[in-house]
Amino acid sequence: MTLTKTDNDNLSKKLSIRLFAIDRLQKSETEPIRVLDCFAGDGLLWHYLKKESGHLIKHVGIDTLPKQGALYLGDNRRYLHRLSIDNYDLIDIDAYGVPYCQMKILAEHNYRGIVVGTFIQCVYGGLPYAMLEDIGYSRPMVQKITKLFFSKGWNKCAAFLRLLGYEEVYVYHCANKHYFCCIPTNNG
Ligand SMILES: C[S@@+](CC[C@H](N)C(=O)[O-])C[C@H]1O[C@@H](n2cnc3c(N)ncnc32)[C@H](O)[C@@H]1O
User: Fold this and answer.
1) Which residue has the least CA distance to atom 22 on ligand 1?
2) For the chain, which end, N or C, has fewer CB atoms within 10 Å of the first or last residue's CB respectively?
3) Is residue 152 domain-resident?
4) What is the crossing angle of helices 44-52 and 11-25, to 10°?
5) For residue range 77-133, what is the model confidence (pLDDT) as tens digits?
6) What range defines the domain where residue 47 resides?
C-alpha cells in the first residue's frame, strides 16, 4: 500500500476553521489581516479566503519546496525563530503530522495571536516524546506501554495546547485528522 500526502483533504473543514479564526480577529473589512502561513504549499486555502472572506488579507507563506504560496523557502522552524512573528495576527500551521515544534517555538516567543493548524496522527503513528513529556509522561513510562500513550493523540495534543496557555481551542475532527484553532486568553 502506498500512502500519499495530500495537501487539502477535508477542504471545507479547513476553510471553516480559518473563517472562524478570521471572525475572532474582529477586524473591519479594510483593516489588513496579516497571516504567516508556515506550511504554505500552493496557498490554496488563503487564496480562497482572500476572495471569499470579505477581508483584506496579507499573506506571507513559507514552504520547504518552491510551491506557489511560498515567499520564503526552507524549514518553517528556522523562520519562526528569525521573523518578527508579532507582526502577524494569525499563524497557520497546516502540517502533515504533529506540529509540536512549531507550537513550542511560538510559545517560546510568547506569540499572542491566533493559531490555526492541522494535527494528523497516522494509523500506526506515534506522538513526539517531547510533547508527552511536557504533559507529564516521561520517556521510560511511554516506552513501557507505548500503545497506551500513543492512543487518542488529539487528547494529548489538546492537553499540550492547554499547557501552552490556550484555554480556548476549537477543533473539527475528521478521523485521524484534527483541524484546530487556538485563541489566546486575552482575545475578545
Ligand atoms: C498540507 S500542505 C499545505 C497546504 C496549504 N495550506 C494550502 O493551502 O495549499 C503542507 C506543505 O507543508 C510543506 N512543509 C512540510 N514540512 C515543512 C517545514 N518543516 N517547513 C516548511 N514547509 C513544510 C510541504 O512541502 C507542503 O507543501
Assistant:
1) 63
2) N
3) no
4) 50
5) 999 999 999 999 999 999 999 999 999 999 999 999 999 999 999 877 899 999 999
6) 12-125+167-183
